[in-house]
Design goal:
By secondary structure, this protein is an all-alpha fold. It has one domain. About 80% of the residues lie in helices and about 0% in strands. It has helices at about 1-15, 20-55, 65-85, 90-95, 100-105, 110-140, 145-170, 180-195, 205-215, 220-225, 230-255. Helix 3 runs parallel beside helix 7. The longest helix is centred in the first third of the chain and has 35 residues, at about 20-55. The radius of gyration is 21 Å and the shape is globular. The relative contact order is 0.13.
Length: about 260
């Protein structure tokens, strides 16, 4: 475990030794802030209209359902575009610079390398999500949202991000070119994002399969405050499978070297 943490710290530091870490976190915070202001403005107008036109006395609107849930659902869109920037360099940069040979001949196992890189990328992603807690905290100052759905939604965001990162690690391990890795990762992410659309014009069997494979369908319950075991199993299995593919790819790289 010590080797895994050491590699994770090295990976996290490497993001901020170049502009990519600052760009990714700053871009994520900027776009999230835009979503926050836009949805908050709509929520305030909606609240005023409900209060003005309600005939049965004062009525309240649900902050979680009408403000936070749409905000966090929009946040999932950011992961689709931002996380390929995080994972594209994990292995492709090592291959391009020639440090992959040094890494593979170091006294650590392939699994430790993969887990270290995974946790390093997850630490950066967790930092990105932590920045958004400032906006959510403001709602607790001026409103009374329920905290349980927020916790479950952030858990869902972490699991969804972990699934994307594990898959991005595998794709990055296949090429030396960061741009190719980033574009391929985005394409695969997008496929898992829209795969359930196929179910709208196919039979019930195919629709059930595509809905299950859709990475966003499993987040919906998390955003409602529901932590379902089947969704946890899906995300954890997805992460494990992505890391397994990366392990096989790195192992083949070692044998080719």
């Amino acid at each position: 475990m010590r080797n895994v943490l050491a590699i994770a710290r090295k990976e996290l530091k490497s993001y901020f030794s170049s502009p990519i870490g600052y760009i990714v976190v700053g871009l994520f915070a900027l776009i999230f802030g835009y979503f926050y202001v836009a949805i908050l403005s709509f929520f305030v107008r909606q609240s005023m209209q409900v209060s003005q036109f309600s005939m049965g006395g004062p009525q309240t609107v649900n902050v979680n359902e009408q403000m936070l849930r749409p905000l966090l659902l929009n946040t999932t869109v950011l992961t689709l575009f931002i996380l390929p920037m995080v994972t594209m360099r994990t292995y492709s940069e090592e291959k391009r610079s020639g440090t992959i040979e040094l890494l593979l001949t170091s006294p650590v196992t392939d699994l430790q390398i993969i887990l270290g890189k995974f946790f390093g990328a997850m630490a950066l992603y967790a930092l990105m999500l932590a920045v958004t807690l400032v906006h959510v905290g403001i709602l607790f100052v001026y409103g009374h949202p329920e905290w349980q759905p927020i916790v479950s939604a952030y858990l869902g965001l972490l699991l969804m991000g972990g699934s994307f990162i594990s898959l991005g690690l595998f794709i990055s391990s296949l090429t030396k070119n960061q741009i190719v890795a980033g574009m391929a990762t985005f394409g695969v992410f997008l496929m898992f994002w829209v795969i359930d659309w196929i179910g709208s014009f196919t039979g019930p069997t195919v629709a059930a399969i595509t809905n299950y494979l859709s990475i966003t369908q499993h987040f919906d319950d998390f955003s409602k405050g529901v932590i379902d075991l089947s969704h946890l199993v899906f995300y954890l299995s997805f992460i494990a499978f992505g890391l397994f593919l990366t392990l096989r790819s790195v192992d083949s790289e070692r044998w080719r070297g």
